[in-house]
Amino acid sequence: MMSDGFLGYKASLMLDVVVCALVIVVPALLYSLFAVKVRRQYQLHKALQVTLGIVLLAAVGLFELDMRLHGGIDTILAKRVRPLTTSEKEAFYQLLYVHLFFAVSTVFLWGTTLVLAWRRIPSPPGPCAHSRQHKILGWLSAADITLTSVTGLLVYYYGFVVP
Question: Is-contact 22 16, C-beta < 8 A?
């Protein structure tokens, strides 16, 4: 039997954890960008990015495990106070697919950004030959994780908060 989460809705514990991570990730990302762009705190930027990557990978991994163990999103949606109508369910799944597109692309894009930075940026971190490519990949990754967060929060809201 799937236990309810801690946010007060009929979502799983891990779904609530992922939602909290999505709320935290964008402000943390903005702070990381501020640290590197304005303050030139390259080591702090690196530490924040690696930490965000690990936290999100762990949260999403545990969420996926939770989904597999408890029958998937349909099982969770069945616990809603009011079942979705057919048209609401279709709209929900369209939104979910948009979210999944951004979520999957974020894993690859952010992962590539982190791995290339790890290999090509000196230690301690600072400007180097890879900086231009890193900046492009970083901004793409930041946009992608922001869209992942926004669409993920919308999935949660329409799937579990709206009666």
Answer: no
With vertex at residue 100, the alpha carbon angle to CA 48 and CA 18, rounded to the nearest 5 degrees, is 50
- Does the residue 1 lie in any domain? no
> What is the average pLDDT across 118-135?
96
Range of the domain at 56: 13-161
What would the two tokens of residue 102 be? Answer: 């951004």
Say if 73 falls within a structural domain. Answer: yes
Instruction: Report d(CA 32, CA 37) in Å as an integer.
Output: 9
Closest CA to 2 of 61, 51, 72, 59: 72
- Record the pTM: 0.89
Task: Name residue 143's amino acid.
Answer: A
> What is the widest separation between alpha-carbon atoms in the chain?
56
Q: Alpha-carbon torsion 111, 22, 72, 100, what sign?
A: negative
Q: Are 101 and 155 spatial neighbours (Cβ–Cβ below 8 Å)?
A: no
Q: Within 9-85, where are the H helices?
A: 13-37, 42-69, 73-77
Residue 7 domain-assigned (yes or no): no
Mean pLDDT score of the chain: 91
Report the C-alpha gap between 28 and 145 in whole angstroms.
12
